[in-house]
Amino acid sequence: MAIAGFVKGTGVDDYKGQLTLFVLLSCMVAAMGGLIFGYDIGISGGVTSMEPFLNKFFAEVNRKMKEDEEISNYCKFDSQLLTSFTSSLYIAGLVFTFFASSVTRSFGRKPSILAGGVAFLVGAALGGAAANVYMLLLGRILLGIGLGFTNQAIPLYLSEMAPHNYRGAINNGFQLCVGIGVLSANLVNFGTEKLKNSSSWRISLALAGVPASLLTLGSIFLPETPNSLIQRSDEHQKAKKMLQRIRGTDDVDAEFEDLVKANATSKAIKKPFVKITQRKYRPQLVMAISIQFFQQVTGINVISFYAPILFRTVGLDESGSLLSAVVVGVVGTAATLISMLLVDKLGRRALFTIGGVQMFVSQIVIGSIMAAQLGDHGGLSTGYAYLVLVLICIYVAGFAWSWGPLGWLVPSEIFQLEIRSAGQSITVAANFLFTFAIAQSFLFMLCRLKSGTFFFFGGWVLIMTSFVLLFLPETKYIPIEQMDRVWMEHWFWKRIVVEPGQESIV
């Protein structure tokens, strides 16, 4: 019996090739979708803390924050309309990721990325020009449509283009771009806030069009993945030539043979969303949905969306809160880069565990400080406010080298070709559903649970870390078209995926 994650007879050594410049440049262009994702996450928190923005669209929230002396620190920003500005992005993404699945499967990864880029462009233009709250929300919805397409296609594209021994690092490039996007948004918000007029939020929202333009133009020149080429046509020679080009060698027979076998199985699948519910795909489906749920109940998007609001809650002024969000963004981006360097060496399970412990400890300490030092009125002392900032940076670093990038990497690499597009759509939909739920409920939760909010998320971090240790097999170095074998070796999942009488072949 082999150890989970190290499967006998996988033929990994037969895979030839290297990380070519062609692959690197293609994946850099595709990962631009992560830049827009991060920018849209980061920009909303800063914009919703700007007074000109609040005065125009959410005047009651601004009045309550400035004039109501009776209101609790934790409840100043509690507005369902305000949170709908943030969360509408994810409802749109949830719905349109299923449209994206059909496009990705039938027409390829490249058209989905292009469609997402166009939707981003229009959404950014509407947001920057918004004259009323309906126009503002429509712009956010269009950005959500863009996310539905790009988040469905880009992780698949990166995993399929990358050599198996670099797949973790290449795929984590998506999360690195998310981190850079969040950091860019925080820097933009910090700069535009000083304008003290409507130009501040308009510039912040409209600048999403810059990475959207880069993605849209770049995607026109992207090559299609060999996996997609072979899935959509019988021109095997074209797919083989593309595989030879991206691997930098003519000796790709072993990998190409696996692609052909996976494609033969894929062709027989007419209803992938029905097929994916079958018993043999149970581990992948459970793992993909669970990881997306757990990624959101780490509380990370609370920090990403509402970092400036959170820092104002503990007593920092508007400019100080935006600067603190910039610091958090720098830490997150640096930690994601570290994850890219380590994920294919240490493996997925080790990073999940290290990050989980780090997040749990920091959240419990943050909750304890706020419970002991922050009442319903007034703020923390300067020393405690900056201690909370340091602890949030520790927490963000833990997420950025574990649940952040791995939450997208693992689901994108575990599904077989025949259900891969459907599986990624379910992954994205689950992510957006849980993100919407957390984004929409956080300010309400903060108002009711107060400092207990951090204990709530800390408890989930403890549960999810235990879940990974028990149920996730190691997937580093396993070729993507042979990933189904890791479940046959796992102590728990083998009882589900291995049919009675077939144990001897595992």
Please describe what this structure looks like:
- By secondary structure, the protein is mostly helical.
- The protein has 24 helices and no strands.
- Helix 3 crosses helix 4, helix 11 packs across helix 13 (253-267) and helix 16 packs antiparallel against helix 17 (318-346).
- Mean pLDDT is 84; it is low at 1-10.
Could you give me the name of the CATH homologous superfamily? Answer: MFS general substrate transporter like domains
* Structural class label: mainly alpha
The total count of helices amounts to 24
Return the CATH architecture.
Answer: Up-down Bundle
Q: What is the number of strand segments?
A: 0
Order of helices and strands: HHHHHHHHHHHHHHHHHHHHHHHH
Stretches where pLDDT falls below 50 for ≥5 residues? 1-10
What tags apply to this protein structure?
506 residues, mainly alpha, 24 helices
Summarize, please.
Helices cover 75% and strands 0% of the residues.
Give me the secondary-structure topology.
Blueprint: H1 21-30, H2 32-47, H3 51-57, H4 59-67, H5 80-107, H6 109-129, H7 133-161, H8 167-192, H9 198-206, H10 209-220, H11 226-232, H12 236-247, H13 253-267, H14 272-275, H15 282-296, H16 300-313, H17 318-346, H18 348-373, H19 382-400, H20 403-414, H21 417-449, H22 452-471, H23 485-489, H24 494-497
Helix pairs in contact: 2-7, 2-8, 2-9, 2-10, 2-16, 3-4, 5-6, 5-7, 5-21, 6-7, 6-9, 6-10, 7-8, 7-20, 7-21, 8-9, 8-17, 8-20, 11-12, 11-13, 15-20, 15-21, 16-17, 17-18, 17-19, 18-19, 18-22, 20-21
Domain Major facilitator superfamily (MFS) profile: 26-476
Keywords: Membrane, Sugar transport, Symport, Transmembrane, Transmembrane helix, Transport
InterPro entries: MFS_dom, MFS_STP/MST-like_plant, MFS_sugar_transport-like, MFS_trans_sf, STP/PLT_plant, Sugar/inositol_transpt, Sugar_transporter_CS
